[in-house]
Specification:
- The strands form 2 sheets. The protein has a 6-stranded mixed β-sheet, covered by helices on one side. Strands 4-5 form a two-stranded antiparallel sheet.
- The protein is built from 5 helices and 8 strands, in the order βαβαβαβββαββα.
- By secondary structure, the protein is an alpha+beta fold.
- It has one domain (2-151): Peptide methionine sulphoxide reductase MsrA (Peptide Methionine Sulfoxide Reductase, Chain A).
- The mean pLDDT is 95.
- Helix 3 (67-76) crosses helix 4 (103-116).
Length: 152
């Protein structure tokens, strides 16, 4: 069955590139979620107080890849111990967050976070919260790294 996963792990370009290659991922879309502004733009998320995170939404076939596996990949693709930053990218839009669509996803995310905490020197600061409206980012952000690699 096709399901959705939604999370933020820093700049959405690299996060999308990491996940789009996984077997069982049907579709990836980058965008914005978790804020207080309807129909945000990249510029408004970066320079105004929208409180949106840069996020990746994936459609996945749960008969090929389990949600648990997707959450495992989430921990691998960023540093979940830094508040509102990933590497040189600083700001609330770069926060570490897992948005869940149901109680099953919530429980999986919470259990996984507890399991992974001992492997980090600092406390995990990842937010785990109910999924909010997903606003698709502008077309030029979709598969950004893949498009750049193809043009070089």
């Amino acid at each position: 069955m096709i399901q959705k996963a939604l999370f933020g792990a820093g700049c959405f370009w690299g996060v999308e590139e990491h996940f789009r290659k996984l077997n069982g991922i049907i579709k990836t879309e980058v965008g914005y979620s978790g804020g207080n502004t309807e129909n945000p733009t990249y510029e408004s998320v970066c320079y105004n107080n929208t409180d949106h995170a840069e996020v990746l939404q994936v459609d996945f076939d749960d008969e090929i890849i389990a949600y648990e596996t997707i959450v495992e990949e989430f921990w691998k693709c960023h540093d979940p111990t830094t508040i509102d930053r990933q590497g040189p990218d600083v700001g609330r839009q770069y926060r570490s967050v897992i948005y869940y669509f149901d109680d099953i996803q919530k429980n999986i995310a919470e259990t996984s976070m507890q399991k992974h905490q001992p492997s980090f020197n600092n406390m995990i600061v990842t937010e785990i919260t109910k999924a909010d409206t997903f606003y698709r980012a502008e077309d030029y952000h979709q598969k950004y790294i893949q498009k750049r690699a193809l043009s070089e």
